[in-house]
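Retry 2 of 3 after timeout on previous attempt. Resubmitting C-alpha cells to design endpoint.
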C-alpha cells in the first residue's frame, strides 16, 4: 500500500513541483525585467534633473544665441538628455538646442511629481521610437526648462525581440500618459498572458512587463516533462525497494511461507500425575523447524505472530497437526488430555469456538480431551466476552485452564471471573518453592483458592524431585517439567504414551495377572 502511494505520488509530486517552479520562474523573470526598467527610468530622470537644474541656474530664458550655445553644450555633456528647451508657462517650447530641425509635440499634460518643481510629460518627436519623456524643471511660475529623455535608455529592445516569449513592455507616466507599448515576437495564440507591474517609488511611472504563458511553457516545459519522468522512475525505484525491504523485513511474509511449507510443528510436553506417575496428558508447544534443521522456540516468534494476527492460522495449524498425530493413541485413551495455548485475541469473538469444533468435533482426539490454555500474562480484551466463550467451551466438554498464574494481569480477579477448570501455576513460583517464603506462601494460597473454586492444579516447570515432593505434600496432583520430560516430538510422545499408558482392554489382563 505504502509502496503504491510512493509510486503514484512521486511523479505527481514532481509534476506539480515542476509546474510550480515553471510558474514561479516566469513570474520572477517578469518582475526582474520590470524592476530593471524602473531602476533605469529613475536613474535617467535623476540625471536629467541634475542637468536641467544646471541649465536653470545659468538663466537661459532670454533664448539668446549664446543661451542656445549653452544648451547645445549641456546636451553634449549630458549622458541622458537628447534635447534641452526653455518652456513657457503652458509648457510650449520657446527655444531649444535643435531649433526647428525636429518637431516636438506634447502627447500628454505634465504630471507633477512629489517635488512640485519637477513634472514629467510624454512627447512625440521623430525617429523609430518617436515617443520620449519630457522632464520639466520649473523654478518659478514663469521660468521652466525641459529636457527630452529617449525611451531607448531604459527599454531593452534587443531582449524584447530575442526572448521569443511574446514579451511585452508598457511604460506609463501615471495616470494615463502612455510612454511605451511594445510587444516582442513568440506569443502563443489563445494562451494566457502573465504580467508583473512595478511602480517607481520616486516618480509617477509604472512599468508592466507581460509574457505569454504558453510561449514560456514551450520554451521551458520540457523541464516539467523531465521532472515528471524522473519522478516516475524514482517513485518506481523507491516503491520497488520498499516492497523488497518489506518482503525481507516483514516477518509475516516469512512466517506465512514457513506455515505453507510445514515448518511449524507441534511438540508435546507430558503432564504427569505425581502420585501415580502416570501420564495424564500433554501441553502442545509449537516449534519452528527451519529447512536447515534449526529449531526455533516460540519465544522468538509468538509475540510477532500475536501482533500481526498470524497467531490465528498458526494455532489452527498446530491443532490440526496435533489432532492427526495424537488421534490413533488418544482414541483409545479417553482420559488423556491435550492442552493448546491460546492468546488474548482468541477471546475477542466466538470464531475460536467454531474453529475448535471444526477440528475436534469429529476427530479421534475428542472435544472432551481438549484443554485450552488462556494466559494471564496479557490482558483480555473483554472479560464478559471471554467468560461467555469459556462457558460455551465448558458446555461442549472442552476444559479451559488459566496459564502462567501468578505472573500476569489478572491476579485473583481472572480466577474468579473466568471460572476456568484448571490453574497452571507458573514456573516462577515453583522455582521458589521451599526456598522463598513469600513465593511458597503464594503457591499455598493459590492451591487453597483452586480447591475452593473446584479447580485442578498443574505445576509448570518442575525441575527437581524436591519440588515434586513439595507439590505432593501440598496435594498438587499434576505437574509438567524437565524433571519428567521436555517438550517431545510427536513420535516420541506417542511412543511414551503407548508404552506407559496401555489401552483399557490391555490394562485389565495386566492388572489381573499382577493381582495373581
Ligand atoms: P507456556 O504455555 O507457559 O509453556 C511452558 C513453557 O515452559 C514451554 O516453553 C516449555 O518448554 C517450558 N518448560 C516446561 N517445563 C520446563 C522446565 O522444567 N524448565 C524450564 N526452564 N522450562 C520448562 P516454550 O515451549 O518455549 O513456550 C514458551 C511459551 O510460548 C509458552 O509458555 C506459551 O506461552 C507460548 N507458546 C508455545 N506454543 C504456543 C502456541 O502454539 N500458541 C501460543 N499462543 N503460544 C504458544
Ligand atoms: Mg501453556
Ligand atoms: Mg505457562
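Retry 2 succeeded. Sequence:
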Amino acid at each position: 500500500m505504502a509502496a503504491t502511494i510512493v509510486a503514484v505520488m512521486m511523479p505527481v509530486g514532481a509534476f506539480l513541483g515542476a509546474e510550480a517552479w515553471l510558474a514561479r520562474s516566469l513570474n520572477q523573470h517578469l518582475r526582474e525585467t520590470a524592476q530593471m526598467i524602473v531602476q533605469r527610468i529613475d536613474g535617467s530622470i535623476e540625471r536629467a534633473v541634475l542637468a536641467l537644474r544646471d541649465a536653470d541656474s545659468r538663466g537661459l530664458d532670454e533664448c539668446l544665441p549664446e543661451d542656445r550655445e549653452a544648451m547645445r553644450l549641456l546636451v553634449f555633456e549630458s549622458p541622458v538628455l537628447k534635447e534641452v528647451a526653455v518652456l513657457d508657462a503652458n509648457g510650449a517650447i520657446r527655444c531649444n538646442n535643435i531649433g526647428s530641425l525636429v518637431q516636438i509635440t506634447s502627447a500628454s499634460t505634465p504630471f507633477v511629481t512629489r517635488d512640485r518643481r519637477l513634472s514629467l510629460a510624454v512627447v512625440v518627436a521623430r525617429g523609430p521610437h518617436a515617443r520620449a519623456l519630457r522632464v520639466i524643471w520649473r523654478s518659478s511660475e514663469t521660468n521652466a526648462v525641459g529636457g527630452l529623455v529617449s525611451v531607448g535608455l531604459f527599454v531593452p529592445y534587443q531582449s524584447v525581440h530575442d526572448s521569443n516569449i511574446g514579451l511585452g513592455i508598457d511604460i506609463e507616466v501615471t495616470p494615463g500618459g502612455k510612454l511605451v507599448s511594445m510587444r516582442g515576437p513568440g506569443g502563443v495564440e489563445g494562451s494566457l498572458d502573465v504580467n508583473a507591474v512595478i511602480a517607481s517609488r520616486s516618480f509617477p511611472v509604472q512599468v508592466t512587463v507581460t509574457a505569454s504563458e504558453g510561449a514560456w511553457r514551450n520554451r521551458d516545459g520540457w523541464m516539467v516533462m523531465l521532472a515528471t519522468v524522473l519522478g516516475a522512475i524514482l517513485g518506481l525505484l523507491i516503491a520497488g525497494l520498499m516492497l523488497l525491504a518489506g518482503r525481507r523485513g516483514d516477518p509475516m511474509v516469512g512466517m506465512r511461507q514457513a506455515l505453507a511449507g510445514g515448518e511449524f510443528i507441534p511438540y508435546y510436553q507430558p503432564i504427569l500425575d505425581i502420585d501415580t506417575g502416570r501420564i495424564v496428558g500433554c501441553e502442545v508447544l509449537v516449534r519452528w523447524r527451519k529447512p536447515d534443521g534449526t529449531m526455533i522456540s516460540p519465544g522468538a516468534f509468538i509475540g510477532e505472530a500475536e501482533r500481526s494476527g498470524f497467531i490465528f492460522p498458526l494455532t489452527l495449524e498446530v491443532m490440526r497437526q496435533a489432532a492427526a498425530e495424537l488421534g490413533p493413541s488418544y482414541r483409545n485413551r479417553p482420559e488423556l488430555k491435550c492442552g493448546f495455548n491460546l492468546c488474548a485475541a482468541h477471546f475477542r469473538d466466538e470464531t475460536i469456538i467454531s474453529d475448535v469444533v471444526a477440528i475436534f468435533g469429529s476427530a479421534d482426539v475428542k472435544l472432551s480431551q481438549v484443554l485450552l490454555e488462556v494466559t494471564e500474562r496479557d490482558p483480555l480484551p473483554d472479560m464478559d466476552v471471554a467468560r461467555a466463550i469459556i462457558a460455551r467451551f465448558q458446555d461442549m466438554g472442552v476444559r479451559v485452564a488459566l496459564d502462567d498464574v501468578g505472573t500476569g494481569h489478572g491476579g485473583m480477579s481472572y480466577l474468579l471471573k473466568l471460572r476456568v477448570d484448571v490453574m497452571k501455576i507458573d514456573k516462577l513460583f515453583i522455582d521458589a518453592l521451599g526456598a522463598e517464603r513469600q513465593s511458597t506462601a503464594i503457591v499455598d494460597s493459590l492451591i487453597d483458592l483452586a480447591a475452593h473454586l473446584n479447580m485442578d492444579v498443574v505445576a509448570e516447570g518442575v525441575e527437581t524431585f524436591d519440588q515434586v515432593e513439595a507439590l505432593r505434600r501440598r496435594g498438587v496432583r499434576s505437574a509438567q517439567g524437565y524433571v519428567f520430560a521436555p517438550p517431545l516430538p510427536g513420535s516420541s510422545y506417542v511412543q511414551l504414551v503407548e508404552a506407559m499408558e496401555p489401552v483399557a482392554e490391555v490394562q485389565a489382563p495386566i492388572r489381573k495377572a499382577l493381582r495373581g
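Attempt log closed. Residues 269, 285-286, 297-299, 302, 311, 315, 318, 341-343, 373, 375, 403-404, 427, 460-463, 480-482, 487 surround C2E (ligand 1) (CB under 6 Å).
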